[in-house]
Design goal:
Length: about 180
């Protein structure tokens, strides 16, 4: 099924503005502000394009390609941190990271998953799913101590989480076998 990226981007742009996801900017007639506003518009346009493409590729199960779009999105963000922090809401940042993490896990991109989980936990320090996913990434990178710490933190936040308890037990057994 072909994806109409332009239409999806326009729909998302409307949703973002109408849903107050993008913070409103005060635009002055000052030339400096006009230049900043143009940079913000360019950034937002590219941000939305990459986000929409990544999400659409994810929906059609093209996880490798989706992961590439999210990596491009990360590069865009790294080169425009100030604009990113000024105009993209916390909710949008979290949503992008969550989708990227899913792509990474599905493509065994453990390092990027780990980095994205850490960024997500910086934004939302009690995000249970991010702790679970980061523990999984650590496990696959054979950093069992960090995996155990994340699982213990997850269980501290959610004492009834049976899967986290089971995974913690499995990793501790794995460590004991290796020693």
């Amino acid at each position: 099924m072909p994806v109409n990226i332009e239409q999806a981007s326009q729909n998302l742009n409307s949703k973002l503005v109408n849903g107050n996801i993008v913070k409103q900017q005060i635009v002055n007639n000052n030339n400096n502000n006009n230049s900043n506003n143009n940079n913000e518009k360019k950034f937002l346009s590219e941000f939305l394009r990459l986000k929409v493409e990544g999400n659409q590729l994810f929906k059609v199960r093209e996880f490798e390609k989706a992961n590439q779009r999210f990596k491009q999105l990360n590069n865009l963000i790294l080169s425009n941190k100030e604009i990113y922090n000024n105009i993209i809401s916390k909710e949008q940042k979290i949503e992008c990271l969550q989708t990227q993490i899913q792509c990474c896990l599905l493509t065994n991109d453990w390092k990027t998953s780990l980095e994205s989980c850490t960024k997500l936990l910086d934004l939302d320090p009690n995000n249970l799913k991010a702790f679970q996913q980061r523990a999984t990434s650590y496990k696959h990178l054979k950093d069992y101590d960090e995996s155990i710490l994340d699982l213990e933190r997850l269980i501290e936040l959610d004492p009834k989480n049976k899967s986290a308890k089971l995974e913690l037990k499995n990793i501790k057994n794995l460590v004991n076998k290796e020693n």
